[in-house]
Amino acid sequence: MSDQNQLSVIILAAGKGTRMASPLPKVLHPVAGVPMISRVVNSVKSAGAKDIRVVVGYGDKLVKQVVEPMGCGSFKQSQQLGTADAVKSAEIDSLDGTVLIINGDHPLITKDDIQKLWRQHRESQNDLSVVSVKLKNPKKFGRIVRHMGQIKAIVEAKDASHETLKINEVNTGIYFVRADVLQDYLPMIKNHNAQKEYYLTDLVSIAIENQDKVGVIEANRRVAFGVNDQMELAKATSFIYKQNCKKLMQNGVMILDPNNTYIDETVNIGAATVIYPGSFLKGSTNIGTYCVVEPNCYVVNSSIADSVVIHTFSHLEDCLIDKECFIGPYARIRPGSDIKQGAKIGNFVELKKVKFGKGSKASHLTYLGDAEIGEDVNIGCGTITCNYAVDKKKYITKIEDGVFVGSDTQFVAPITVGKNAIIGSGSTITKDVPSEALSVARGKQIIKENYTEKFKKDKKD
Ligand code: UD1
Ligand code: CA
């Protein structure tokens, strides 16, 4: 006897998704930044499924590239002849235990949903369980037809009579079935219906005819939410983002407008931090307590300590921001930047791979790349590190503690400026500057008195 506690999964994902009106395979469309299919795979995987088989068809190469690295097998359905044919493509003869069949376009299903349904299925001791929901407007869903309370069949909307269409209990397209039951009955399914398709739903009536135990498990409506067009895709995305906001708000994060705040479920934020609308906070980002993220910031894979202010329109990627820093507005912090306590990065400042010391400031219009800036350094407006040389290599600029850099300075790397040095405004620094020194490197200013009148006269002549 096989172990019915062992769960394998078949995810149906061969369809093109015509109504998406997009060349991208439907299941690769992202819901809150994550492809739908990846969401379904993550949910079944974290619910404990080991053997996950994805049936691919339209755009199979692309779908494969996403699901195989997640540890799934992919199985090609060469022609989309219906859901039963799709399941058949998944080499079901090698399956054992319980098989969960699920659609790849139901991105809102969670690990908890699956664990709960699976528990209910095991408790029911059904050979086949169909997961249903009750909908006010059951639209195109297959209807669950019951007799004396017992399921008798699933009837597709296109094949249903006027009376059957009135049934509001529908098939979610999720089934738990014994592998041997699936193996026995799948070949018996015919395509004698309105769509000339092999309907997986026919498994129900065949199993009943053969005296198997078939039952229905009712689930919440979210489980049945399928994405078929761009409107439904947007709905799913906004559902996930709103849900993420809700969780954070329950932990004391102040989110001014959860309908317009886009935070991945992977992001952690401390209590008493304020998030203004329009921001995207993504990936492995962590934000501490008492921070402020002003409108329209984009933060990905970054670690932000307590009491940091990120002013509006800032873009941060793979960086570390220590406590009490001020960033932006309009700052761009690129990967590998490490900004220490109390530092200030102001408007139109770009940093790439920069160690920026405690209490230092770069307040306006500056590019620093491949640089090490010490503590309490003042970087004047319009400073540029010329880090990229004609040999196509990157060179380091090192500016030690306490240096004052006048505005409009270029550092031609590699270069080191020693402690407490002063750089005169408008300098192009090409040689190292010792500690405590003044360095000015600019054309000397000349003055010619009473010049203008003469210049005009010369021009006329
Ligand atoms: C199916 C069910 C219906 C249920 C609904 C829930 C059948 C016959 N009907 O209908 O009872 O209410 O799901 O959403 O099963 N697919 C393939 N290969 C195919 C056909 C479909 O992989 O040959 C995949 C699709 O990509 C999709 C899923 O199976 O992910 C469902 O297919 P779809 O055509 O959308 O079925 P529905 O008509 O919605
Ligand atoms: Ca569908």
- The number of domains is 2
Model regions low in confidence, pLDDT < 50 over at least 5 residues: none
Class of the largest domain in CATH? Answer: Alpha Beta
Shape: elongated
**Which structural class fits the helix and strand makeup?**
alpha/beta
Total beta strand runs: 37
Please state the second-level CATH architecture of the largest domain: Alpha-Beta Complex
Distance from N terminus to C terminus (CA atoms, Å) equals 111 Å
Q: How would you describe what is shown here?
A:
With 461 residues, the chain is an alpha/beta fold. It has two domains: 218 residues, Spore Coat Polysaccharide Biosynthesis Protein SpsA, Chain A (Alpha-Beta Complex), CATH 3.90.550; 210 residues, UDP N-Acetylglucosamine Acyltransferase, domain 1 (3 Solenoid), CATH 2.160.10. The protein is built from eight helices and 37 strands. Strand 8 and strand 9 form a beta hairpin. It binds uridine-diphosphate-N-acetylglucosamine (UD1) and calcium ion (CA). Uridine-diphosphate-N-acetylglucosamine binds next to strand 1, helix 3 and strand 10.
